[in-house]
Write a structure and sequence with these properties.
The chain is an alpha+beta fold. The chain contains four helices and two strands; from the N terminus they run αβααβα. 43% of the residues lie in helices and 16% in strands. The longest helix has 15 residues. The relative contact order is 0.21.
């Protein structure tokens, strides 16, 4: 949030990477680790949209799950 606040006048959007499987991301609960914590992922996205959605594009990248249905359940 702080980084987006600092840059909001110089960027058009923010994309949260919830797909990175690298240990440096997942060990800190970031990247693909967010796929295992949908409540936290939802809270992050909601906070970004609530604060910046009127001005910036807010999106996220996720990994697909085992089935289309599971992936749709996750994003909805």
């Amino acid at each position: 949030m702080e980084a987006v606040s600092l840059l909001q006048d110089d960027i058009y959007g923010v994309d949260v990477n919830m797909g990175c499987p690298m240990k440096f991301s997942t060990s800190g609960g970031m990247g693909a680790a967010l796929m295992k914590d949908p409540d936290n992922a939802r809270n992050i996205m909601k906070a970004l949209v609530d604060k910046f959605g009127h001005k910036l594009s807010v999106s996220c990248k996720i990994r697909t799950l085992d089935t289309v249905e599971e992936t749709l359940d996750y994003i909805l």
